[in-house]
Design a protein that fits this description.
With 264 residues, the protein is of the alpha+beta class. The protein has a single domain (5-185, 192-262), classed as Nucleoside Triphosphate Pyrophosphohydrolase. The chain contains 8 helices and 13 strands. Strands 1, 2, 3, 4, 8, 9, 10 and 11 form an 8-stranded mixed beta sheet that branches. A 3-stranded mixed beta sheet has the order 5-7-6, with no helix packed on it. It has a two-stranded antiparallel ribbon with strand order 12-13. α2 packs across α3 and α6 crosses α7 (220-229). The protein starts with a helix and ends with a strand.
Length: 264
């Protein structure tokens, strides 16, 4: 991928040691699946500072309160998730909580239930919407939200998928773990606004073709993930895929006098 002039200049400055890369913030992204298979995508508003106009999966940065040990938990433990993502237990706890919280904030889908074997069936009422908005403006902590409703986070409904780190040339950087999850029975996504101005369910191959035709914009991690998902003809096939989580951080290299971003 050739770099625009501004990033090409920054890439050369980084390679020359003239500037330092900004730290990458821990973040989580969730690929919501439904039979087809289809994935849920949001188009980020053109005014956003990061990935403006791009079609992305729900997700966002870890809130410091996502590491709260008071979160009611069912499924693989933070230590087990840490082993998968090569992260400490506290970081892993925050990543899983952020994955579930951000998914609810950005799609209305909640991967939690009254017990370890149940899932909330409907999150569309006014009271749910009030809680969702309170989570977004950070006036409500995720642990308190679950406790108030007597809910347990279902980490077993998440499948680890990938680990991407934003290139060092970017001014805003994220250390993002990708998860996949099936839309729970009875729940439905909705256009909840906020950072997105459009949402859509797409078959992975369809989204890739739209990007190739220039009709939508996909960032490299989203494009790669959709390509991997397109190899399967069912949700069961996606969930059955064995994944070895390798860290990918695209880097800038100069090729024939042109600065390019490569992942290899």
């Amino acid at each position: 991928m050739p770099l625009p002039a501004e990033l090409a200049t920054r890439a050369r400055d980084l390679l020359a040691g003239l500037v330092e890369p900004v730290p990458a913030r821990d973040a989580a992204t969730v690929v919501i699946l439904r039979e087809g298979p289809e994935v849920y995508l949001l188009r980020r508003k053109s005014t956003m500072a990061f990935a403006a106009g791009a079609y992305v999966f729900p997700g966002g940065s870890v809130d410091v309160r996502d590491t709260d040990q008071a979160v009611a938990w069912a499924g693989p433990s933070p230590a087990e998730w840490g082993a998968v993502f090569k992260a400490g237990e506290e970081v892993a706890r925050g990543l899983v909580c952020a994955a579930v919280r951000e998914t609810f904030e950005e799609s209305g889908v909640l991967l939690a239930g009254p017990g370890p074997d149940s899932v909330v069936a409907d999150t569309t009422g006014d009271d749910w919407e009030a809680d969702r908005l309170a989570l977004i403006d950070r006036s409500l902590a995720f642990a308190d939200f679950l406790a108030r409703r007597g809910l347990v986070l279902r980490s077993d409904l998440l499948k680890p998928w990938a680990h991407w780190i934003t290139p060092e040339i970017e001014h805003r950087r994220f250390d993002t773990r990708f998860f996949a999850a099936v839309l729970p029975a009875g729940q439905r996504t909705r256009d909840v606004g906020g950072e997105a101005d459009q949402v859509a369910w797409k078959r992975p191959a369809e989204a890739i073709e739209l990007a190739r035709r220039g009709e939508i914009f996909l960032m490299p991690p989203t494009y790669r993930t959709l390509s991997e998902l397109s190899a399967h003809d069912s949700v069961a096939g996606i969930l059955a895929e064995r994944r070895e989580i390798m860290t990918i951080m695209p880097r800038a290299v100069e090729i024939a006098g042109e600065m390019r971003l490569v992942t290899g």
